[in-house]
Task: inverse folding
């Protein structure tokens, strides 16, 4: 049985991408061929050479919201940082609050404007859950979501360093896919950041079917696996939606033995969750239009029901994302980890850029 430590690797800090490439599709692309173990070094715009007519390309169209807010304690003046996690109803959200020890039930926090002033938007802590997250109620606005573009910051991951307190304007554009629609993510589905509208049109013109799912990426995407083995890890839950159009694209491809290629681990999780939710034992694999929540945790030796290939970024050590990618390295077996960590070692030797703003890998 593989242990969590088996998914560790050492990354030179200077390879953690702090900014995106000048153009989205100018990032690098490491192509990994599972059958032979062969690897190719390309640029992302050359991904079209590996897609063929009839393939179904599935992308996550969730939009990142400006989920990081700053405020001060109305009683003491102490500073707080709020990260919106999930809306339960209008003006009622689960959040991560820092410093958490000062955010007791009943604490009232005045939200700050970008210039450091505050209006009458107040966040009141109503509840604390077992994970230490707070449920807060917002007042002073009909809907806090309407205020986020003005007072919220891009929720960049902790390994991206920004000297200024406010998110840079570039991040508002580039930490978002060009096809993002429904808002709800607090982290970008990063594999999709490399696509331009023109590249997607080129892919469609080649006869590739493009479908979209929605999975709102939660904070848990950055959570390392702390248990000794993957089996001991409790996966975070995320909301998803699979449309009728995308379900039909996938089912038709399955019937005709055409490839389904997922863009990002979030797309994989939706497709495999939908297959598990909608298929009776022994029946042909199909997916059905649905909305739901998933805690699916994919790690070796997982047998994939839907996904044939994956376009993804390079992920953190010991992360659930690296484990998912390793599972696809050799579906139904455990040695996929060896292939993927070998690919990571190759990427490090070749000075690829890692993580959210980094380069990409295509597994076929």
Result:
């Amino acid at each position: 049985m593989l242990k969590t430590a088996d998914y560790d690797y050492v990354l030179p800090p200077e390879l953690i991408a702090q900014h995106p490439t000048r153009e989205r599709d100018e990032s690098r692309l490491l192509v990994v061929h599972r059958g032979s173990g062969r690897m190719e070094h390309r640029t992302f715009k050359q991904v079209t050479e590996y897609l063929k007519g009839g393939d179904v390309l599935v992308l996550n169209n969730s939009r990142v919201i400006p989920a990081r807010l700053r405020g001060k304690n109305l009683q003491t003046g102490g500073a707080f940082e709020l990260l919106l996690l999930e809306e339960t109803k209008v003006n009622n959200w689960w959040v991560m609050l820092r410093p958490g020890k000062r955010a007791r039930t009943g604490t009232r926090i005045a939200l700050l404007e970008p210039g450091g002033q505050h209006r009458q938007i107040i966040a009141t802590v109503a509840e604390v859950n077992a994970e230490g997250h707070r449920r807060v109620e917002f007042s002073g606005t009909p809907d806090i979501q309407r205020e986020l573009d003005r007072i919220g910051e891009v929720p960049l991951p902790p390994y991206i360093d920004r000297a200024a307190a406010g998110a840079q304007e570039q991040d508002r554009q580039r930490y978002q896919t060009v096809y993002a629609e429904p808002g709800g993510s607090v982290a970008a589905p990063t594999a999709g950041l490399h696509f331009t509208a023109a590249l997607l049109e080129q892919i469609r013109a080649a006869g590739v079917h493009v479908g979209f799912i929605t999975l709102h990426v939660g904070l848990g995407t950055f959570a390392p696996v702390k248990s000794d083995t993957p089996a001991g890890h409790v996966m975070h839950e995320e909301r998803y939606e699979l449309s009728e159009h995308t379900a039909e694209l996938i089912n038709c491809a399955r019937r005709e033995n055409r490839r389904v290629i997922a863009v990002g681990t979030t797309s994989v999780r939706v497709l495999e969750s939908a297959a598990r939710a909608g298929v009776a034992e022994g029946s042909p694999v199909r997916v059905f239009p649905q909305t739901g929540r998933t805690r699916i945790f994919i790690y070796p030796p997982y047998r994939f029901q839907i996904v044939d290939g994956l376009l993804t970024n390079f992920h953190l050590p010991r992360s659930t994302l690296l484990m998912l990618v390793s599972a696809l390295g050799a579906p139904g077996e455990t040695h996929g980890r060896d292939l993927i960590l070998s690919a990571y070692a190759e990427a490090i030797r070749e000075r690829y850029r890692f993580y959210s703003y980094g380069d990409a890998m295509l597994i076929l």
